[in-house]
Write a structure and sequence with these properties.
Oligomer: single chain
Distance between the termini: 64 Å
Shape: globular
CATH architecture of the largest domain: Orthogonal Bundle
Number of strands: 0
Order of helices and strands: HHHHHHHH
CATH topology of the largest domain: Rna Polymerase Sigma Factor, Chain: A
Length: about 150
């Protein structure tokens, strides 16, 4: 069965302006989330693009930012799980390499917290976890990072 698209809704300038605002607001944290998994810039950008393309129909249905924010991040996580994790890292920065060597559950939170300066509330919304768990992951991630850096040959 063929369904026709309501062209008035699809080509409304205010919709595209609003969606452009969403893209500009969330592209950096989404990029950080994707990059923290794949550790590859090109793959992270591909994941970012695919996330926004797949999320657009969900955004049309839901105009409430609080309801679609977790969906946006779940969409990103669903996409990046299809990409292989890169173990090769060409960056020579010791602290960056230490951050990349963290387990994924810490790496995601630490990228969002320290590299993209998201607060605990934003991280908890993005990842769909409580603020208490976010604080615990940040604390444990920082301790793991300290251990890695203290054992590194500088």
């Amino acid at each position: 069965m063929v369904q026709f698209i309501n062209t008035d809704k699809c080509y409304d300038d205010s919709l595209f302006t609003s969606y452009a605002d969403i893209i500009s607001k969330y592209e950096k944290p989404l990029y950080a989330l994707a990059f923290s998994h794949v550790l590859n810039r090109e793959a992270a950008f591909e994941i970012l693009q695919e996330t926004f393309v797949l999320f657009y129909p969900m955004w049309i249905k839901s105009k409430n930012e609080k309801s679609f924010l977790p969906k946006l991040y779940r969409t990103c996580r669903h996409i990046y799980r299809k990409y292989p994790v890169s173990k090769k890292n060409s960056v020579k920065n010791t602290s960056y390499n230490a951050l990349c060597s963290l387990p994924e559950k810490y790496r995601r939170v630490m990228f969002l917290k320290d590299m993209f300066l998201c607060d605990n509330h934003e991280i908890s919304e993005m990842l769909g976890i409580s603020e208490k768990v976010t604080k615990q992951l940040v604390f444990s991630g920082r301790n793991a990072l300290i251990d890695i850096l203290s054992n590194a040959d500088l």
